[in-house]
Each structure stands twice: as structure tokens, then as C-alpha cells.
């Protein structure tokens, strides 16, 4: 190509060469044309309230069936092994980076066996106490759900800190009571007296308010578009609170019976 004195065309040779080098050949275009069309990967469905309800209901049914079978056949010796298995599974679920539905289901079954054994023993000592504890637990759960949905109590950062602080304090007291009991010292927290009744009422109140935190966390996850699989983890969280609430109500009713 003849060079031109026009500065706009001085690098024309280089430009044309570069275009020829970068331009696709006819063979390349034919290969591209013959390739299958691109299919976008399926996107995971977002979390909904129905997902959490279904998973929670599934865990409750499994726990109830396991508990009923344990109490019916009086397999009370399974209480301690089931408690240990449930504790280990709950720690794995909490600290595991990925959500594992089989672990959550295993936790629900283990807790069902544990609660069934405990309930069977308590119901022999105090006839009818099992039905009262179940009704009381469902009543508290339903009541806190209504409170949350109506906005009667709003979950604020301050309320969240108070509830978490109270739970930590109660956990420390429980651990202290356990350690002292190993040395034969009765702190009065679980002896059935006035202090024990007050402590159980405090635990029931904290467990009830914990539902508010659970409901709020579920709402936030739904708004943020969390994957539907997280419903297993939220169902697990609700199950943990329900187990704690049920045990405290059962214990409080036994104190009142005495």
C-alpha cells in the first residue's frame, strides 16, 4: 500500500493487518454455528414461608412418632444415648458450613426419642402431665407467632441483645448447677422449690421470646432471597427452641404438682 502524507492514514497498514488477524475465519464461524445453543443453568428457588412450615412440620412429625414409640414401648434407657446423639448432631449442624438435611432429620429423631423417654417417666409419676406439657408448648408457640405477626412486640437490636444475654446467663447458671450437683451441692435451681419454679418461668419466657428472633431471622432471609434449602436450617432452629420450651414446661408442671 502506498503511504500517504495524511496523518489519519499513516498507520492504516497496521490497522488493516490487526483487523485481518483478529477477524474470525470462515471455518471458525462454521464451527461456532454448528455448536449447540447455550442453556443457562437452572437457578435455585428462593426461600418461602411454606418451605419453613413444611420442613418444620416434617421434623415435628418425625420427633412425635419417635417419641411416641419410645414411650409406648417404655424404652426409657434410650434417653441418655439419644440426648448425647442429639447434642452431637446439633453441634455439627450449627458449625457445619453447608446445610445437611439428613443431619437435621437425625437430630429430630434423636430428640424425639429423648423427649419420649423423659415424657414417659414423668407421665408415670404425674399422670396427664404429658398432654399438659404438649398443649402448653403449642400454646406458647402459637401465641408468640401471633405476637410477632401483629407487631405487638417488635424485634429491635436492643431486644435481641437482651434475649441473647438472658440465654447466655441461663446457660451459665445451668452449667454451674450441673457442676455443683456433681459435688453433691444443691443450688436450688432444680430442686422444686420457689427458686426452681422462678428459674423455670424465666427459662420459659426466654424460650418464648427466642421464637421472635427465629421468626425475624426467617423474614429477613426471605426478603434477602435466601435459597430454599435454608428452610432446613430454620426448621432446625425452631426445633431446638421447641425442645427447650417443652422440657421447661414439663419441669415446671412437675414442680407445681409437687
Automatic annotation (TrEMBL):
Pfam family, one: BaxI_1
UniProt key word Translocase: no
PANTHER family cross-referenced by the UniProt entry: CONSERVED TRANSMEMBRANE PROTEIN-RELATED
Keyword annotations of the record: Membrane, Transmembrane, Transmembrane helix
Coiled coil stretches, renumbered: none
Protein name, UniProt field: Bax inhibitor-1/YccA family protein
Membrane-traversing stretches: 52-69, 75-95, 102-123, 129-150, 162-183, 195-218, 230-247
Keyword presence, Transmembrane helix: yes
The organism of origin for this protein: Nakamurella flava
Amino acid at each position: 500500500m502506498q503511504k500517504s502524507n495524511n496523518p489519519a492514514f499513516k498507520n492504516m497498514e497496521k490497522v488493516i493487518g490487526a483487523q485481518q488477524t483478529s477477524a474470525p475465519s470462515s471455518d471458525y464461524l462454521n464451527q461456532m454455528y454448528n455448536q449447540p445453543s447455550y442453556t443457562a443453568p437452572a437457578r435455585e428457588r428462593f426461600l418461602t414461608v411454606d418451605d419453613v412450615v413444611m420442613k418444620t412440620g416434617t421434623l415435628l412429625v418425625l420427633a412425635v412418632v419417635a417419641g411416641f414409640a419410645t414411650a409406648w414401648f417404655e424404652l426409657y434407657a434410650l434417653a441418655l444415648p439419644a440426648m448425647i446423639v442429639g447434642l452431637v448432631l446439633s453441634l455439627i449442624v450449627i458449625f457445619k458450613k453447608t446445610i445437611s438435611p439428613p443431619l437435621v432429620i437425625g437430630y429430630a429423631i434423636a430428640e424425639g426419642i429423648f423427649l419420649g423417654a423423659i415424657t414417659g417417666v414423668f407421665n408415670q409419676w404425674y399422670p396427664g402431665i404429658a398432654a399438659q406439657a404438649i398443649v402448653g408448648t403449642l400454646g406458647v408457640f402459637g401465641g408468640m407467632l401471633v405476637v410477632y405477626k401483629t407487631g405487638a412486640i417488635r424485634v429491635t437490636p436492643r431486644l435481641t441483645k437482651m434475649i441473647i444475654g438472658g440465654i447466655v446467663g441461663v446457660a451459665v447458671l445451668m452449667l454451674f448447677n450441673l457442676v455443683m450437683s456433681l459435688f453433691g451441692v444443691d443450688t436450688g435451681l432444680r430442686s422444686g422449690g420457689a427458686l426452681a419454679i422462678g428459674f423455670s418461668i424465666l427459662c420459659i419466657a426466654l424460650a418464648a421470646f427466642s421464637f421472635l428472633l427465629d421468626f425475624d431471622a426467617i423474614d429477613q432471609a426471605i426478603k434477602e432471597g435466601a435459597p430454599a434449602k435454608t428452610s432446613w436450617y430454620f426448621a432446625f432452629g425452631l426445633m431446638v427452641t421447641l425442645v427447650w420450651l417443652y422440657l421447661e414446661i414439663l419441669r415446671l408442671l412437675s414442680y407445681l404438682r409437687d
